[in-house]
What we know:
Bound molecules: ligand PBG
Low-confidence stretches: none
Strand order of the largest sheet: 1-4-5-8-9-10-11-12
Oligomer: single chain
CATH topology: TIM Barrel
Amino acid sequence: MNRFAPTKAAGTRTVDEVTGSRRLRRMRKAAWSRRLVQENHLTVDDLIWPIFLVDGENVREPIAAMPGVFRFSVDVAVREVERAAKLGIPAIATFPNVDLSLRDVTGSLILDPDNLTNRATRAIKEAVPEIGVITDAALDPFTSHGHDGVLRNGIIVNDETVEQVAAGAVLQAAAGADIIAPSDMMDGRIGVIRSALDDNGFQDVAIMSYATKFDSAFYGPYRDAIGTAGLLKGDKKTYYINAANSAEALRETEQDILEGTDMVMVKPGMPYLDIIRLLKDTFALPTFAYQVSGEYSMIMAAAANGWIDGERAMMESLLAFKRAGADGILTYFAPSVAEKLKG
Ligand code: PBG
């Protein structure tokens, strides 16, 4: 029994008069018709799994700010990547957390053919040759100050950084990396890395540029994961893109393409869906989104508090990247998503 009887709406037009016979809910009425008209799909082929590495054996270290994510020693990483391959995940991306004693002002550890990244690549490619290995070509895991470049008199020097990262990229390729992912936003890095790879016989090694990497608060948990959080002084505003700028993101991407990148990436992901769409529509290159640590941790934290349905939020956030035009997504959720898609 209604306490208030419906009265005629204040307006003069009925719904029929407003929509005619058009009813958008018609195709939403049943599961079968919703499936039939679904425009975008997330599949296991869309997933790239970023993993963290640490020295030692049989290590599986939880990362406080990223519940469900661990740092793996190389032997454990190999087993985890085997699992990922079985789930059908096409590629992984590695990020090392090296001992503080090995870090220096210039990040020279990137020049060690046997550094943690390269040892992991060799072991993974030997055990699981069918999975793609993407290595991070940047100095920040190796510098004592957590910046992505050589630091001189308070300035991140561009050209010296690029030379060093390019030399490191060649070592990564020699260890078996399939894709080099330069993530430092130095000018000219793509072209210099491309020529270094080609000159050393690695014409088949691809480049996925972090074409648009924004200066972002969402990297917080990652810096905990690779141990740069306590080291970093100042910010990365002199090399990452201002979050307010999309025309600049377009020019950055154009430059990376001119220099020879095979793929482009947008990072972070969800706050930058407009940039993904812009790049895909403008350049039609393979375009990837990086759902970064902060995005992952926000979903996990809200889910842990019972504020959102974590699994639904995970799937929805990833589908949004497909809708925005992404060909694939780097996501810490990759194994969970692959399992869910399988089940
Ligand atoms: C830096 C780098 C960052 C991430 C990966 N490599 C950003 C940063 O620390 O400034 C972030 C990844 C994430 O947040 O998941 N080369």
